[in-house]
Amino acid sequence: MQQKTYYPKASEIERKWYVVDANGQNLGRLATRIAHVLLGKHKPTFTPGVEMGDYVVVVNAGSLTVTGTRTHSRLDTKFYYRVSGYPGGIKSISLRDQLKQYPDRALRDAVWGMLPHNRMGRSLLKRLKVYAGPSHPHGANQPEELK
């Protein structure tokens, strides 16, 4: 007897909205939970290569914590780089400054590092909504708390 592989159709995929309060949570641990939900690995019908994931809304991203000792804090040793393409056009910002100025970018970059770096990963990242403060405009979607 031949076993058939289950492949979900687009009409069978049900998407939920989850909200996560990032207040006092560790950056890496939170990013792994978010990537898990975005990929849809928490569902019993998970299929690799199929966008089964849900939407995730993160509030209070400005109050994330980072591990590290007092002498070698990750806030001061981790840097984000971008290059303009011109000579001398490299810009760097520390994690401490990134969390101060653009708290949503630090979490978005951490989640992006845990997603596939292809077309599917880029579309999954669009389902992540990150806000520095405690409020978000997605109340109409009735997001439930992510356990």
Describe the fold and architecture.
The chain has 147 residues and is of the alpha/beta class. The protein has a domain at 15-66 and 96-145: Alpha-Beta Complex (Ribosomal Protein L13p, Chain: A). It has 5 helices and 6 strands; from the N terminus they run E-H-E-H-E-E-H-H-H-E-E. The protein has helices spanning 27-39, 74-77, 95-101, 103-112, 119-125, and strands at residues 17-21, 55-59, 79-83, 90-94, 128-130, 144-145. The strands form 2 sheets. It has a 4-stranded parallel beta sheet with strand order 5-2-1-6, with helices on one face. It has a two-stranded antiparallel sheet with strand order 3-4. The termini are far apart. 23% of the residues are buried.
